[in-house]
Amino acid sequence: MRNVPVSVIIPSFNAACYLEACLSAVEAGTPPAEILIVDDCSTDGSLQMARELGLRYPNVRVLAREINGGAIEARRDGVHAATQKWVAFVDTDDLLEPGALADAYRGAQAAHADICIWELWRFDGERSWAMLENLPERFPVTGHEALLLTLGNWRIHSFGVSRRSLYLKAYGEFRESCHTADELLTRLVFRQAQRVSACKSRYYYRVNPASVTINVHPRMLSSLDAALWLIDFCRELPGAPLEEVTANAIWQAWWLYQRRAALGPAATRAKIAGFLAQLVHRGALSRQLLRRPKSLAKLALLTATCAPTLPGFRRSPDASAVGGEHP
Predict the structure, then answer these.
(1) E-strand stretches of 124-181
(2) Residue 116 burial class via C-beta count within 10 angstroms: exposed 0-12, middle 13-18, buried 19 and up
(3) What is the DSSP string of 49-72?
(4) 139 pLDDT exceeds 60?
(5) Residue 213 lies in a domain
(6) By the 8 A CB rule, do 326 and 298 touch?
(7) Domain count, the chain
(8) Looking at the domain assignment, is residue 326 inside a domain?
């Protein structure tokens, strides 16, 4: 195979220091038929670097967005511009193991799958360690089974080679622009898939202190919109752990409340108040959920501090243990 028939989409924003290494890793082994670098209004010279790299690599195309929309919109542009039937996404500060593209593409073909995922590893420049390893006996799975593995705690991811049509359909029904919107999109993609396989090649996720997924930013408040979206989504999904998903949403509200000084105290309280009102309106607070001491304790404190006009929640005996732990 001279080229892997895949369009690799690299969303890029102020990542000039990583872009060339990322591209070199993608080109290593059997290169893809196409690489789309989608610049999301960078201000650090990333766009110029991407164009220079495009002159060196004949399979590279550069797209420049006129309005910053975040990685999910950059990926959307890449999906629509892609010419191959299969796509893969690589973030600019991450790396692929040489040969990973060919490995995943062959894995998808062999399993007659719509998606073939890599193993997910973290690295910090000095060492690497596994986040999610692919056990052969666990795959392939149906798209529905893969979707259920994203709920509660993430036990699967979507980094790999996928049919482009899955993303076209998912983006077609997706209008969210909230923080963590990419996680919601992943679930729509799995819902579209018939079969998901896996290979042993690795995707390396960089532990980067400057990453937008680590730094506290007011936009993170919109993750509560994503949490409500997911609760509604799970209501229509057979086998979904709705109680666990709701407990995670409450934990997310508590996590944001703990960081209200950085997020803006008034905005944080207002957002959490609206979120709690929506939980009540949706009837999402089941008796089983309210029997969880940690969830009930967090609800009691959040209601008292952010939404005192809502019906109160009685504190459980260990309400004093309200803290940052996961429910």
Answers:
(1) 128-132, 141-142, 160-163
(2) buried
(3) HHHHHHHH-TTEEEEE-SS---HH
(4) yes
(5) no
(6) no
(7) 2
(8) no
Residues 57 and 100 placed together within one structural domain of the fold:
yes
- 38 by DSSP, 3-state: which? strand
Q: Are residues 88 and 171 in the same domain?
A: yes
Per-residue pLDDT tens over the stretch 108-138: 999 999 999 999 999 997 899 999 999 989 9
| Lookup result for tokens 């000039």 | 16
Residues 200 and 224 in one domain: no
120 conformational bin, left if phi > 0, alpha if psi -120 to 50, beta if neither: beta
How many residues would you count in the chain?
327
Residues whose CB falls within 8 Å of the CB of residue 33, separated by 6 or more in sequence, listed in order: 3, 4, 5, 6, 7, 59, 83, 84
For residues 245 and 151, membership in a common domain is answered with no
- Contact 45/158 with Cβ under 8 angstroms? no
In a domain, 156, yes or no: yes
Average pLDDT value over all residues in the chain: 91
Indicate yes or no: pTM above 0.85.
Answer: yes
231-262 in b/e form (b: 16+ CB < 10 A) is bebbeebeebebbbbbbbbbbbbbebbeebee
Distance between CA atoms of residues 94 and 21, nearest Å: 9
Task: Please report the pLDDT score of residue 323 as a whole number.
Answer: 40
Say if residue 97 is in the same domain as residue 227: no
65 contacts 38 by C-beta, under 8 angstroms: yes
Q: Domain range holding 47?
A: 4-206
Residues 72 and 21 reside in one and the same domain = yes
CB atoms within 10 A of CB 281: 9
Ranking 8-12, 42-46, 68-72, 251-255 by mean pLDDT, the lowest is 68-72
Per-residue pLDDT tens digits for 269-315:
999 999 999 999 999 888 888 888 888 899 999 999 999 888 655 54
Q: How many CB atoms lie within 10 A of CB 125?
A: 8
